[in-house]
């Protein structure tokens, strides 16, 4: 373990627990001895392998992209995506895609992918802007001051805060902190106002407003009598026109799931028989033993029929096709009888209810103002506050969770938080071990059997110090969001809500483990103990450790920005799985179709926190080790390019948070502001610099006050859309005369003095309350771009009576027996099986799939309309 000695104002020696700045120092005026910093060599050791890896990845990508078009460019032609949303591509050359990436505006992603996808790219652009502004502000001023700060640091440590011993020079750090933090607060405020206007314009458009989900609200734990249709308007308002009661249908759901499972078993067995029989026939023909009659052919078929035992290894052996066909038919009949006897009004009361209103405005008003508190008992009263959700689409609903009892939901929430906290705490053990690797010299001094490492060549030691710690840290952290998402899906009513909760949890984890624990590096135990005994020591601990850990994050950003962004484009792991595992395990046409048409999506709960923590680290280090800002900006820029390619060509948004994930990320980013202020408070305390300390104290409390005011005014507009089309124009933050933007002071002052190409962007940036209003954003959404003409207003979605009737019913009450997809063959076995299945009411088809000359399954990749399982989704 590294030593926890800290350098104070008297010049006592310390040894860096992160190992990046391994030195022993005294007051610089007394001529203390110093061992040279290894920061530069560690960075080079991290950069070389990551750069070479990135070059190899990109080279492979360029050469194989055209061959695996379905993997690297499905958004250009897949029928599962509406033709109007296809990404234009000039050709299929090795670099033709670069033209689209370069020239297509991000607005194209907003129009043709999703609001969340556009906002994610905007978030990355804003992080790049913050880093760029920070570099322009800090580098010209703080680099020279740090370099001439009176210390004796070497290499990159010379331009960090740790080289400053002249107290008067610390005023520069305090002034720069004031300016930079004010800029960050302005940018966050501006983006939140912008988001309000964009969401209002986007979600109020005719196409979005006409969707069934836009005028439907989910109420969890509704009051007694809500399942009675005659009480609909009395309880939920006069504008309520339809309801879908959700009650406990677990028994029906289990039978329906078993029916589906047996149907897939039947399909697999029939396809296997068809393939085996035809391959045996091909083999017989090849060997000159061609069948001369139906009898030989029937023998081939009989020998190819699969069988299995009812109990593993010991039960009765049965014909798999006959048995699974019989079971599927019996279970389908059982499901139908259970549905006929089911009545939502009589089945254990309503656990939840979906209510459709006449239009979007009525739904918004009910969501905002409807008071059900007086209609529920005291136990439910504590739960009713936030247990209503608007805009929930059927495919995102987690049905098992919305039928939970109030007690189960409360206990589930507490249990999930306890489990998450435990994961965060105990994950510090492996993260702490990774931190010790960066201080390998100190580690070998304390652990004898590791002393052989001291004899390794300097290049190998540099690799261990520079490359291995951030690589292992990235690997450790990558598994955490999967755990968090699994936990969140046990209690939240929908995938989007689970993703938002995952985002909160994973951000907390990122800040604690990737930032704080790694900064304290020797593990959380000693630090947590100190903080528990003396909470006021937090600024001192942060102040002492942050300058020493800065070089770790330089290599961390190198690894993430260079290698990981290249891997983000190549995505070799999924490609290998797609190629090799598909050939090994995909036997039926359905398996091949599912793998072929699967499109990767972005998980907002894991994507946002990673980059929000990048921003937290960069902001926290902005005045302590300004070089971090540059490395963070470059790393995020490379990620931006990789995600831009993916969202244009390969990714499809699967979870719709309607911009809420972006809003939370902006709030989370302010953690970096507070940590920056706390760290500077700690550093100024250590240096006993009262003037800069007082300046930071004032800024700290002003930040808290400003954050409170910002939330007070903006949060309601983020949560609630306007009740009337022009309501947002009456709000103080979004009020302005729209015609000609006459409310713009910047344009008025600059008119005639500055060219419009300079004046307009400046005005838009500095006056979001005018240019981000709902009407202004609606006009912006309709504007044409050079490579994306102004879109015509889409036809609002229309629904059949059956689609509306089944929209928010539990799938167990509406799902049909899966239609089996067989493969057509020359022996006619598929036609025979279709007839046999039809006799017991099981639908089957062999359209769009056949056996080739070698007996392998091929399906209609170029014509999805022939595929029996393909259907265009209903846009709810």
Automatic annotation (TrEMBL):
The chain crosses the membrane at residues 40-64, 127-150, 170-189, 417-440, 460-484, 505-528, 614-641, 662-686, 692-709. One of its GO terms (cellular component) is plasma membrane. The keyword Methyltransferase does not apply. Residues 414-684 form the CSC1/OSCA1-like 7TM region domain. It is a multi-pass membrane protein. GO terms for molecular function: calcium-activated cation channel activity. Its main location: membrane. InterPro entries: Csc1-like, CSC1/OSCA1-like_7TM, CSC1/OSCA1-like_cyt, CSC1/OSCA1-like_N, PHM7_ext. It is found in: Membrane. Residues 214-401 form the CSC1/OSCA1-like cytosolic domain. Residues 282-315 are annotated as: Disordered. Keywords: Membrane, Transmembrane, Transmembrane helix, Transport. Residues 765-861 form the 10TM putative phosphate transporter extracellular tail domain. Pfam families: PHM7_cyt (PF14703), PHM7_ext (PF12621), RSN1_7TM (PF02714), RSN1_TM (PF13967). Residues 43-191 form the CSC1/OSCA1-like N-terminal transmembrane domain. Belongs to the CSC1 (TC 1.A.17) family. This is DUF221-domain-containing protein. It comes from Patellaria atrata CBS 101060.
């Amino acid at each position: 373990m590294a030593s926890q000695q800290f350098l104070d104002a008297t010049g006592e020696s310390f040894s860096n627990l992160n190992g990046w700045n391994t030195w022993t120092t005294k007051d610089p005026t007394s001529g203390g001895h110093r061992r040279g910093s290894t920061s530069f060599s560690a960075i080079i050791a991290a950069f070389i392998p990551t750069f070479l890896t990135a070059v190899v990845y990109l080279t492979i990508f360029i050469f194989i992209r055209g061959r695996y078009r379905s993997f690297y460019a499905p958004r250009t032609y897949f029928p599962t995506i509406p033709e109007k949303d296809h990404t234009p591509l000039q050709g299929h050359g090795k670099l033709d895609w670069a033209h689209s990436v370069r020239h297509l505006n991000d607005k194209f992603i907003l129009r043709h992918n999703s609001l969340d996808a556009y906002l994610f790219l905007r978030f990355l652009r804003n992080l790049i802007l913050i880093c760029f502004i920070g570099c322009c502000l800090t580098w010209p001023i703080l680099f020279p001051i740090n370099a001439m700060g009176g210390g004796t640091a070497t290499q990159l440590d010379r331009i960090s805060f740790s080289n400053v011993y002249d107290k008067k020079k610390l005023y520069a750090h305090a002034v720069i902190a004031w300016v930079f933090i004010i800029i960050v607060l302005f940018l966050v405020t501006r983006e939140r106002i912008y988001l309000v206007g964009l969401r209002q314009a986007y979600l109020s458009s005719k196409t979005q407003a006409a969707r069934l989900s836009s005028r439907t609200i989910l109420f969890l734990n509704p009051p007694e009598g809500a399942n009675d249709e005659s009480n609909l308007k009395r309880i939920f308002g006069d504008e309520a026109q339809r309801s879908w009661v959700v009650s406990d249908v677990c028994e029906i759901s289990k039978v329906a799931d078993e029916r589906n499972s047996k149907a897939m078993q039947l399909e697999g067995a029939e396809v296997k028989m068809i393939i085996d029989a035809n391959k045996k026939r091909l083999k017989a023909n090849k060997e000159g033993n061609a069948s001369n009659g139906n009898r030989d052919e029937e023998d081939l078929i009989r020998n190819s029929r699969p069988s299995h035992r009812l109990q593993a290894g010991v039960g009765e052996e049965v014909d798999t096709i006959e048995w699974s066909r019989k079971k599927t038919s019996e279970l389908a009949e059982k499901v139908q009888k259970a549905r006929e006897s089911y009545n939502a009004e009589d089945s254990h009361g309503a656990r939840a209810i979906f209510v459709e209103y006449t239009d979007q405005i009525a739904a918004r008003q009910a969501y905002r103002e409807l008071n059900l508190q007086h209609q529920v008992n005291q136990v439910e009263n504590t739960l009713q506050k936030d247990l209503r959700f608007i805009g929930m689409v059927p495919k995102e609903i987690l049905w098992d969770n919305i039928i939970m009892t109030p007690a189960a939901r409360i206990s589930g929430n507490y249990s999930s938080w306890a489990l998450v906290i435990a994961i965060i705490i105990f994950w510090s053990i492996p993260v702490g071990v990774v931190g010790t690797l960066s201080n390998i010299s100190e580690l070998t001094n304390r652990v004898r059997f590791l002393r052989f490492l001291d004899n390794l060549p300097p290049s190998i030691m540099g690799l261990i110090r520079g490359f291995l710690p951030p690589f292992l840290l990235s690997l450790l952290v990558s598994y955490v969001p999967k755990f968090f998402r699994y936990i969140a899906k046990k209690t939240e009513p929908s995938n989007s809500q689970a993703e938002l909760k995952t985002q909160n949890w994973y951000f907390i984890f990122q800040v604690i483990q990737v930032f704080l624990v790694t900064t304290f590096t020797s593990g959380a135990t000693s630090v947590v103990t100190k903080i528990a005994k003396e909470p006021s020591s937090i600024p001192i601990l942060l102040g002492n450790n942050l300058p020493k850990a800065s070089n770790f994050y330089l290599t961390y950003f190198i690894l993430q920005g260079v290698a990981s962004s290249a891997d983000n484009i190549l995505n070799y792991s999924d490609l290998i799985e797609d190629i090799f595992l598909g050939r090994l395990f995909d036997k039926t046409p359905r398996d091949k179709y599912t793998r072929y048409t699967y499109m990767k999506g972005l998980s907002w709960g894991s994507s946002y926190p990673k980059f929000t923590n990048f921003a937290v680290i960069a902001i926290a280090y902005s005045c302590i080790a300004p070089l971090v800002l540059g490395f963070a900006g470059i790393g995020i820029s490379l990620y931006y390019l990789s995600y831009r390619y993916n969202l244009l060509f390969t990714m499809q948004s699967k979870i719709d948070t309607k911009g809420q994930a972006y809003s939370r990320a902006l709030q989370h980013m302010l953690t970096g502001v507070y940590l920056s202020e706390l760290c500077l408070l700690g550093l100024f305390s250590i240096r006993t610099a009262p003037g800069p300390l007082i300046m930071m104290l004032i800024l700290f409390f002003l930040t808290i006050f400003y954050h409170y005011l910002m939330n007070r005014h903006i949060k309601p507009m983020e949560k609630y859309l306007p009740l009337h089309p022009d309501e947002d124009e009456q709000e103080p933050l979004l009020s302005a005369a729209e015609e000609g933007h006459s409310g713009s002071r910047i344009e008025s002052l600059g008119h005639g003095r500055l060219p419009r190409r300079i004046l307009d962007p400046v005005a838009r940036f500095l006056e979001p309350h005018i240019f981000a209003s709902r009407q202004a954003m609606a006009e912006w959404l309709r504007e044409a771009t050079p490579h994306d003409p102004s879109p015509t207003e889409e036809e609002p979605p229309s629904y059949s009576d059956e689609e509306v009737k089944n929209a928010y019913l539990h799938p167990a009450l509406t799902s049909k027996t899966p239609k089996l997809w067989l493969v057509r063959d020359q022996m006619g076995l598929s036609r025979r099986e279709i007839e046999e299945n039809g006799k017991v009411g099981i639908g089957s088809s062999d359209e769009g799939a056949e056996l080739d000359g070698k007996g392998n399954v091929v399906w209609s990749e170029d014509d999805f309309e022939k595929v029996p399982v393909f259907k265009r989704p209903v846009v709810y």
